[in-house]
Amino acid sequence: MGVPPLYSETNEIFSKDLSETDVGVRLSFPMKALKVFQFLEGENKMEFEAADGIGKRWTFGLSKRKARHPKPVLSSGWLAYVKAKGLQTKDRFVLYGDLDNLSTKKRFRVRAQRKVGRPIKLFGKEIHVEEVWVDVEELEGLKREVSRSIL
Fold first, then answer.
1. Domain ranges of the chain
2. To 10 degrees, the CA torsion angle through 61, 64, 66, 70?
3. Has the keyword Transcription been applied to this entry (predicted)?
C-alpha cells in the first residue's frame, strides 16, 4: 500500500492566480468553494487549518458577507503565508480538501506556485522555453542548492 499523494487533483477546492489585492490585503476566491466550509449557524467568520507542501500548518481566517453575494475572503493568517512564501502577483494559490478517514473533519492543504521557464533542448541546442508551474518550496530548495555550490 503506497502513501497517498500530498496533492490530489481530484480534491482541489479552488486555484487562483494572485492579484495585487490578493498579495497585499486579502485573498478573495470563488463562492462555489464555500460549500466545503461549515460555518456555525448565523456566523460569517471561521478559522481553518491547512498544511503546506513541507508539512507546516497554517491557520487562516475565512469570512463571507452576510448579503446575497457572500464574496468569501481569507484574511487573518493570509498575509503571513504570503510573506513566508514570498508570493507575488501572478503566482498561483491552490486549496485542497478531503475528509479525514478517522472522522468527518475536513483536512485542508495549500499550495503556492510560480510559473518558470524551462528550456527544452534537442541535440544540446535550446529550441523552446516551456513555462511550467513549480511549487515555491522547490524554488527555495533550488536557490539553496545553487548558493551552496557557489561557496
1. 11-112
2. -170
3. yes
Strands 106-122 and 45-51, by their bridges, are: parallel
CATH number belonging to the domain at 11-112, selected among 1.20.1250.20, 2.40.330.10, 2.60.40.2380, 2.70.50.50:
2.40.330.10
Residue 79 exposure: Cα atoms within 13 Å on the Cβ side:
7
Query: Do 31 and 69 meet the contact criterion of CB atoms below 8 Å apart?
Result: yes
List helix spans (H) across the chain. 20-24, 78-85, 136-150
CA dihedral 115, 144, 53, 14 (to 10 degrees): -20
Which of 44, 119, 29, 115 lies closest to 74, judged by CA? 29
The more confident residue out of 33 and 19 is: 19
| Maximum Cα–Cα distance across the chain | 64
Q: Could you write out the three-class secondary structure of 43-112? A: CCEEEEEEECCCCCEEEEEEECCCCCCCCCEECCCHHHHHHHHCCCCCCEEEEEEEECCCCCCEEEEEEE
Cell (9 digits) for 58: 497554517
| pLDDT per residue as tens digits for the range 46-75 | 899 999 988 999 999 999 887 777 788 998
